[in-house]
Amino acid sequence: MQPRTVEQEPRTDETLMRAYGDGDARAFEELYARHRAATYRYFLRHSAGDAASADELHQDLWLKVIGARARYQAQAKFSTWLYTLARHRMVDHWRSRHGTTLASLEDEATVAQAEESVAAARNGSDDPLHASIDAQARGRLFAALADVPPLQRDAFLLHVEGGLSLEEIAGLTAASGETVKSRLRYAYRRLRAALEDMA
Amino acid sequence: MSNHERESSQSPGGDDALDRAWQQLSDEQPPSALDAAIIAAARKSTEGRDEPAQVKRASPPQRSWLTRWQPLAAAAAVAGLAFVLVQSLPRDRDVGPTLQMEAPATAPAAAREKPESPATREASEAKTASPPAPAVVRESVAAPARVIERESAADTATTMPAAEVDQRQQAAAELDGRISSDAAAGAAAPIPAPVRTTASAEATATSAKAARDNVAPRDAADRAASVAALYAVGDIAGAADALREFRAVDPDADSYLQESLRDWARTVE
Prior knowledge:
The structure holds 2 protein chains of 2 kinds. Chain A contains 10 helices and no strands. The termini of chain A are far apart. The longest helix of chain A has 22 residues. The radius of gyration of chain A is 18 Å and the shape is globular. Chain B is mainly α. Among the domains of chain B are: 97 residues, no CATH class; 49 residues, no CATH class. Chain B has 11 helices and no strands. At the A-B interface, α3, α4, α7 and α10 of A face α2 and α3 of B.
């Protein structure tokens, strides 16, 4: 009875990643199935709905995971390690597009510049989904998120899409717990306001 | 983040309604082509890792096949080489015996071509005597006979018929025995030994023939017999003359005489 119970328990992300590092491709497929949508939306929201950029960033992230399978050590949660890679890739993307760096994201001017670029990308988006009624609400919500400064938006996305806790986000972003909490509070307030406008 | 994790997470902002709305609206998925590309890359990475292992697993049979056949091929090559050598070596050795066995069949023709005529004998004697012998070896009486026997055997092996070979060997044996008996009696007289040089084998064979033709002991016996015959018929003067001639040819002529004539021979000067 006990072996059957062990077999029915889903393997953890860390176990799957180690199995993939040992050559188990099916472990990677299971791991990818768990996180594919979240990481894709993480990039998509940061790109203000730019699907092409999200595709590119998403593919780059998972290719990094594939390339790092032999070096992976389960010292932290897999999701924390995964979103660390995702965030670094996102920062690289910002740097290449707007000349911003991770440190400069704290500057208000840089935040404003990033928000302008995100707004421009949002206005230029011709996703057909935005044409539907549900897409209107989605668009308002996502537009509201796009108006949120990058660090606040990043903290929000790491929480709602990546499922990371405050402590994990703090560790990942090298910020204090209070800073992360204030960033999240700011993001929630902006989005709640957008939902209230819809109602 | 999976949907299960998203549902179980609590909003740090304290707005569960916002979290639910976000979960309902934010449901985009990566394109299937993108998923396929990433899965393919992951599989390829593991296949790339497995392929060398498979190659390593597959390569040993090839090596074992080679290592299994290489010694066999080497052994076959060695066996073939040995076979060729074995086949070639006996052929080389068969040349001598074949000629020896064929020699008697062809010997009569050779004997017919080489009759021992006096002219030929003289020519061979001249050939033997003509070169200045750097080292003339005077052997004992028995030595020439053995040389004659050996050389005549070697000579007749290729040139004479078997009957003639037997006759010559018998004559040589008789001669050898007679000379040996005389030598044992202390009358080993120096005989004009055939000149033996270290020239060619042809010269040696020629000298052997000359020695056979100049059988000095046979002449001495004949001379002794003639002396005895003259003495027996009462021709004492003739016997004395024959003895003198015999002494002129052979200083040890008296030793060839019969015991009964030796007292008379001492009186002949």
